[in-house]
Amino acid sequence: MGQLDGKTAIITGGSRGIGAAIALAYAEAGADIVLTYNASAEAAFEVKAKAQAFGRRAEAIRADAGDVEAVQASIRDGHAFLGGLDILVNNAGVFKRKLLHEASDADFDEVMNVNLRGVFVACREAARFLPQGGRIVNLGSSFGERVPAPGLGLYAISKFAVAGLTRALARDLAGKGISVNAIQPGPIATDMNRGDERHARIMAMMTAFGRYGKPEDVANMAVFLAAPASGYITGATLNVDGGFEA
Q1: Is residue 246, in this structure, part of any structural domain at all?
Q2: Cβ(173)–Cβ(127) under 8 Å?
Q3: Alpha carbon distance 86, 185 (integer Å)
Q4: Could you tell me if residue 67 is inside a domain?
Q5: Which side of the chain, N or C, has fewer Cβ within a 10 Å radius?
Q6: CB contact at 8 A, 170 and 125
Q7: Separation CA 240–CA 220 (nearest Å)
């Protein structure tokens, strides 16, 4: 029996990297899934097919995480496809490296619209559907704990805010029996953050293990936070970072 048998989940930004790993881990654990994507249609439909190979219902929905109406529609359409909604995972995000004093209003809006407003809107919409015992899992970042280098400010601001949003929503949704938690990945090897570049070697040395993690390391935590065993955990920000913040 899978940890998520009979559950339904929407994973935003589920076509690649950590989002794809979470989508497939949920399907393997027994959940029917909907994943959203923006530009990576081919990758999204590959994840959909792999999820279906586990015997699960799966769908991929195009939605720009920075577009309020698109986010709202994706949650409604995902709920309709699944016939219910037990779990929301907010994974979609964007990274823009800019010194804060050189960043434009457009730079700020681009990052905040995807990394913060998109998360807020998805949570607000999903709260209409989530039942007693429902789960929200937000993907933050180790840069939501500290800012270890110049140029990370826009991303860090958005992820510090995700941590605050998670704690506040945990209080606000507790009366409905919905838990809200955040995972804060550290250096994780994905196609957008490969572990073999010069800066990556520096980041790896800053971890306790001296290496990058895998998307599956984050996915394992996402499964735990959606499973019955985590029922008394809410408002938490849990680091999956190989000791990066130790």
Answers
A1: no
A2: yes
A3: 23
A4: yes
A5: N
A6: no
A7: 10
Amino acid at 95: F
Residue written as tokens 């986010």?
Answer: 71
Which two tokens mark 140? 């933050």
Alpha-carbon dihedral sign for residues 65, 66, 71, 74 = negative
On whether the CB atoms of residues 34 and 56 are closer than 8 A, the answer is: no
Domain, as residue range, for 174: 8-240
Rounded CA separation 8/123 (Å):
15
Token match 């359409």: residue? 77
CB 17 within 8 A of CB 195: no
The question of whether 155 is a catalytic residue gets the answer yes
User: Total domain count for the chain?
Assistant: 1
- Active-site hit among 26, 155, 212, 232: 155
Q: Is residue 2 part of a domain?
A: no
Q: What are the beta bridge partners of residue 9?
A: 33, 87
Give me the sheet containing 32-37, strands edge to edge.
58-62, 32-37, 8-11, 87-90, 135-139, 179-185, 237-240
Block mean pLDDT (10 aa), the chain, length 246: 95 97 98 96 98 98 98 98 98 96 98 98 98 98 92 97 98 98 95 64 89 96 98 97 93
Look up the CATH number of the domain holding residue 225.
Answer: 3.40.50.720
For residue 142, being part of any structural domain is answered with yes
